[in-house]
Task: inverse folding
């Protein structure tokens, strides 16, 4: 006699549904900040970013000063062998993006911007999107969200003195020694004199899967065609507050600006889930395509103003890794975006953002 078939109400049939519901609950719990270290949630990290300066309503909590950019991405002949992502096979893809400066002040002076950002949205003809957020540093400041939060909290001024507490920073560096490497880089690295000759790096690792089903871990970077020129430190002291935007406008008036997208492939043993450690320059690289920018405009009324450049919005053929910093960035961006949207919808916004 064969065993009886499960009835519609059988726990065996309900188990897959329960697992799906549980997985969704876990996802929303993380995004909402209800899981993990209770002292390090997306909300806590955004709160710290707000406290780093005078937060203005309707403005990004980090990299508040920005410039909208428009252009196209054209894949290289080798790109279609790297991934099945449509962006690597269609002739060209429109790009909407943003250059940015750190901090939550949309009027911050450009001569204080030692770090610069490039965020892009690529939308292919089949409706898929690829959003990425890159920075001019070659590796991330910390290896985990907890370490990065500790660093940012230590940078906040002590209410008693109005300045950061040196002892608190020393404790953070002792607990998270990788941060010292980032500080050493920031003190020694020359600052480019233009956005046009700045290299932008995606310090988190991702996975590309090609048509044969082969998956490889990569980090990508945008490498400028414009030759690098270091800014003169003395000239920076007296530079105009918005000299980077003025320089960008001048250069684009003379013609398009280009960056090659370079994929760097991990070797066995390379840290895939630790963005604070750069991979050796000897790792194999492939040019996946060329980004061409043709226009820039102030963000105050530009198309990039309210776009959330979540780095985990990815097309088929590209996937995130388990890097905890990557997933924290996605969650923090979501919290920041939702706060801005609520402020904008309520009419409580900062006006007069220059870029």
Result:
């Amino acid at each position: 006699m064969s065993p009886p078939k499960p009835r519609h109400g059988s726990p065996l049939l309900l188990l897959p549904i329960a697992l799906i519901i549980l997985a969704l609950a876990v996802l929303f719990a993380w995004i909402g900040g209800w899981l993990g270290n209770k002292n390090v949630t997306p909300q806590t990290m955004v709160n710290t970013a707000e406290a780093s300066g005078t937060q203005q309503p309707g403005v990004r909590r980090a990299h508040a000063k920005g410039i909208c950019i428009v252009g196209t991405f054209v894949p290289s002949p080798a790109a279609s062998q790297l991934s099945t992502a449509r962006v690597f096979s269609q002739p060209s893809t429109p790009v909407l993006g943003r250059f940015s400066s750190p901090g939550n002040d949309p009027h911050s002076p450009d001569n204080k911007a030692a770090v610069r950002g490039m965020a892009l949205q690529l939308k292919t003809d089949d409706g898929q999107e690829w959003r990425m957020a890159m920075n001019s540093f070659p590796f991330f400041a910390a290896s985990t969200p907890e370490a990065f939060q500790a660093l940012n909290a230590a940078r906040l001024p002590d209410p008693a003195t109005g300045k950061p507490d040196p002892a608190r920073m020393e404790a953070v560096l002792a607990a998270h020694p990788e941060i010292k490497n980032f500080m050493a880089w920031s003190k020694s690295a020359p600052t480019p004199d233009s956005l046009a000759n700045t290299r932008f790096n995606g310090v988190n690792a991702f996975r590309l899967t090609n048509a044969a089903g082969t998956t490889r871990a990569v980090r990508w970077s945008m490498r400028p065609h414009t030759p690098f020129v270091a800014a003169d430190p003395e000239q920076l002291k007296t530079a105009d507050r918005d000299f980077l935007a003025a320089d960008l406008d001048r250069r684009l008036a003379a013609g398009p600006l280009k960056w090659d997208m370079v994929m760097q492939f991990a070797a066995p043993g390379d840290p895939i889930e630790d963005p604070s450690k750069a991979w050796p320059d000897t790792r194999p690289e492939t040019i996946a395509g060329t980004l061409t920018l043709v226009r820039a405009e102030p963000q105050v009324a530009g198309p990039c103003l309210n776009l959330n450049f979540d780095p985990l919005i990815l097309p088929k053929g590209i996937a995130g890794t388990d890097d905890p910093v990557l997933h924290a960035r996605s969650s923090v961006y979501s919290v920041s975006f939702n706060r801005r949207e609520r402020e904008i919808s309520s009419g409580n916004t900062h006006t007069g953002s220059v870029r």
User: Anything to note?
Assistant: Confidence is low (pLDDT under 50) at residues 1-6, 8-36, 351-355.
